Amino acid sequence: MGSISFPSYWLKLFLEGKAGRLEEYSIQAVAAERGKFMRPVHAPKTP
Question: Cα(28)–Cα(32) distance, rounded to whole angstroms?
Fold first, then answer.
């Protein structure tokens, strides 16, 4: 990719039909779609 930003690179490939939805490149979005995402719990003795 070099100095090309990811969104620019993705958009070029997406418009060519060579890239999936932008959400497919976000671990948070994929986890939420699969029901594997949860909000952090309050743990007072952790950093």
Answer: 6
Does the predicted TM-score (pTM) go above 0.70?
A: no
Query: What is the DSSP annotation of 1-47?
Result: -TTS-HHHHHHHHHHTT-S--GGGG-HHHHHHHTT---PPPP-TT--
Please give the single-letter amino acid code of residue 43. Answer: A
Query: How many angstroms separate the Cα of 37 from the Cα of each of 8, 22, 25, 46?
Result: 28, 18, 15, 20
Domain with 2, as residue range(s), is 1-47
Domain count, the chain: 1
Residue-wise pLDDT tens digits, 1-38: 578 899 999 999 999 999 999 999 999 889 989 998 77
